[in-house]
Amino acid sequence: MPAPLAALLERATALHHDLRFESVRAWKARTGGLALGFMPVYVPRELPWAMGVLPVGIFGGGDQLEIIRGDAYYQSYVCHIPRSTIELGLSGSLDCLDGVLFPATCDVIRNLSGMWMMQFPDKFARYVDVPQDFSTSLGGAFYRHELMDIAAELERRGARPLTEANLRAAIAEYDANRRAVEALYELRRNEPWKVPTHELYLVLKAGMVLPVDEHTRMLDEYRAAVVADVERRPMDQARMLLTGSFCEQPPLGLIKTLERAGCYIVDDDLIAVQRWIRGDVAPLAAGRTALDAVVAAYLENGVPSAIRYIDQDRKGRDLVERVRQSGAEGVVFCAPSFCDPALLDQPMLVGALDAAGIPWTSFKYAENTGQFQVIREQAGTFADSIKLWSGA
Ligand code: SF4
Predict the structure, then answer these.
(1) How many domains does the chain have?
(2) Does pLDDT of 282 surpass 80?
C-alpha cells in the first residue's frame, strides 16, 4: 500500500480506537470552543458548527470496552450501545463534551437521555424530539422551535450566536462533506475493489470527531489515493447491500469478515448521519433562510428509514431502488440484536425484496461481538449461492 494511504488509514484507525476522544480534547484546547456530542442517528450538525461548537458522534464503545457498570443500567434484552455509552460517561471518557444531544431514534435513546440528565446534571443534555409530521406548517414549525432552543442553550453556555451568515457557511461546509462522502460511495459502487468497506468505514467514522473541513480533506485524499493505487484489482465477489446498521455499529471485524467471505459491500447505512440527507441542504429558495433550509432538508430529503414514520411501502420501494442503483446482487440484513426499529421494519422490507426477486440473508450482531465464524459461513454461503445460481 502506498505510504500516504497507509498513513491516512493509520490516522483514521487511531481515531476509531480513541475512546478518550483525545482529538476532541486537543481541538478544544486549541480553539477554546465547546464540543457537543450526539447519539445516532441524525442531528443537524450544521447548527452547532455554525456556532463554533464541534459536533462529536458518540457510537458506544465498540469491541474495545469492558462493560463494568453499564450493564446495571439496562436489561439484558436491550441493545448494547446504551450500556457502553453509560460506561464511557461514568469512566470520564466523555467529560470533554459540554453536552449531548439524544435524537428521537428509539425508546432506548430517549431513556438514555433521562439517565444522562440524572448522572451529569451540570452538562447540557437534550432529547431532540425530531418530528414525525413532515409538513412545514406543523412538523417544520415544531422542529425549528427545537433547533432554536438548542441554539439558545449553546449560546448561554458560551457558544457564539447563531446568525444567518454563519449558518450558511456551515451548511456549505457540510454540503461539501456530503458530496465527498457520496463521491466515495459512487467510486465503491463502480469499483468496489478500490474502496474496501472496512477502510471506508474508518474514514467515515473519523468525521465523527474531526472538524468538517478537515474531514472533507481526508475523504478527498483517501479517494485520490485509492484511485491511483494500481495494486487494487477486481476479484470475483458477490455485490451486497448491507442494511440495518444505522445506529449501533457492527465491529470492524464483522465488516472484514463479510468481505473475506466473498462480499463486495456496494451500499450500506453505516455512520448514517453522513448520508441521512439526500443531496445538498443548501438550495435556498427565494425567501428561505438558512434555518428554513436545515428544517426543509430534514422534512423533505431525509432517507426513508426505520426511524421515520412513513408509509412502509415507500421504505420497501426505496430499498429495492437502492439495490438496483448500486447493482447489488443480494441484501444482507445486518442489525444490532434487540434493535426495535431495524427489526420491526425488516419483515416489510423482506416482503418488498421477495416481490422483486432479490435474494437476502440476515443476522444480528452486538458492537462487541467477537466471534465471526458462523457469520462468515452464512455470508460466504450466501455469496457463493449468488455467484453460482443468481440470474445465470
Ligand atoms: S441499536 Fe436500535 S434499539 Fe438500540 S439504541 Fe440504536 S436504534 Fe435504538
Answers:
(1) 2
(2) no
